[in-house]
Amino acid sequence: MHRSSRASRLALACAALTLGTAFAPPGAGTGGGEPSAVFVQNNGADGNEIVAYARAYDGTLTRRGVHPTGGDGAALDGAVADDLASQGSLTHDPGHGLLYAVNAGSDTLTVFRVHGTRLERLQVISSGGDFPVSVTAHGDHVYVLNALGGGSIQGFAYASGRLTALPRTHRDLGLDPAAAPQFLNTPGQIGFTPDGSGLLVTTKANGDRVLHYRIDAYGRPAARPVVTELPDAVPFGFTFDRGGRLVLAEAGPEAVAVFDITPGGGLRRVSERATGGTATCWVARSGHLFYASSAGSDTVGVLRGERSGNLELRATTPTEAGPVDAAASADGRHLYVQTGVASTVEAFAIGRDGSLTRVGSVPVPGGDGGEGIAVV
Question: Cα 363 vs. chain centroid, distance in angstroms?
Fold first, then answer.
């Protein structure tokens, strides 16, 4: 299929989404010490907010508070389910007990201290570019991905509760700033490799590439990335398997693919599996299991990863309208899926075989088109 027709098909899939329904189950604290929490970003244009939920033992959620980021959200042209058209706009840094949130409408990044289900805002700092959509952290380094103006990345160093912009870490991506629609032609995610030696960036339909920046001992990226071209793949969100392989959501073929990262920094495809969904853009990991959200079909694909890197599609689970980013609990018992059209968070129990059983749903105030979820 020609790239322009593929882009049009994906745009129509997103435009066809319709509002779903939600209900709020009775919640309960986890008991003993600070409760486990789920944080969700609503990306409000008149004030971005992080909504905090307490997570009960059975996986159900109870809303505990709403925390302004001190910045504004915004929407890319053509976006419906996810106004940022990205993965990882809200990132938990467990090593420092922090939560990072992007403010696309203010070109800023907010730093929160996590206290159970309560957030303490520590800092709001410039993202170093136009329209930040994704943030990643490793050790004392944090990087932000800016989507507009051809795209860029900016690095920060953490010390004593604050971030400081790292000199000589800004890199322009050189994407076509006029490519349309915006939501398909802006970069999708930035993420450190598991060992922290590199940064990966996806470009979606604007080149169909994955960029790999080597990181030096001072936390600075190489002047130029190693580029892997994936024609018509529309590479979007990603995570990594237990062996350090890249696990990538490909919106073009509506599939999830696994890649080895070669010694030279390029990608070598290991396997690929279709999800059975439409507009597959986001992928989350829980152990050897991967959950791929497809906003156009209102489904989450359940895939099992093998030690060899091969993937097996185990099931396709229906969700409320517009599933986007998702996150699993550290104990592997529950998956939480943010829906950008229904404006909810759905809670699922994860079975031994990876299957999902719905245990509840809670509304996200002002969450239409929101993206960004973290389980703490």
Answer: 19
Q: Which CATH superfamily is domain 3-375 in?
A: YVTN repeat-like/Quinoprotein amine dehydrogenase (2.130.10.10)
How many C-beta atoms surround the C-beta of residue 121 within 10 A? 16
Residue 279 and residue 14 in contact, taking contact as beta carbons nearer than 8 Å: yes
Hey, where are the domains in the chain? Answer: 3-375
Torsion angles phi and psi, residue 5, rounded to 5: -70, -35
Report how far apart, in Å, the C-alpha atoms of 109 and of each of 100, 181, 233 are. Answer: 7, 25, 30
Residue 219 one-letter amino acid = G
Q: Where is 14: in which H helix or E strand?
A: helix 3-15
Neighbours of 190 (CB within 10 A): 28
**Cα 63 → chain centroid:** 22
Q: What would the DSSP string read from start to end of 136-189?
A: EEETTEEEEEE-STT-EEEEEEEETTEEEEPTT--EE----TT-SSHHHHS--E
* Nearest-10 Cα torsion for 48, 118, 123, 284: -60
The amino acid that residue 278 corresponds to is T
Tokens describing residue 124: 């709001």
Tens-of-pLDDT digits for all 376 residues of the chain?
A: 344 444 444 444 443 333 332 323 333 333 344 569 999 999 999 999 999 999 999 999 999 999 999 999 999 999 999 999 999 999 999 999 999 999 999 999 999 999 999 999 999 999 999 999 999 999 999 999 999 999 999 999 999 889 999 999 999 999 999 999 999 999 999 999 999 999 999 999 999 999 999 999 999 999 999 999 999 999 999 999 999 999 999 999 999 999 999 999 999 999 999 999 999 999 999 999 999 999 999 999 999 999 999 999 999 999 999 999 999 999 999 999 999 999 999 999 999 999 999 999 999 999 999 999 999 9
Tell whether omega for the bond before 235 is within 30 degrees of 0, i.e. cis.
no
Maximum Cα–Cα distance for the chain, whole Å? 56
Q: H or E element: which one contains 184? A: helix 182-185
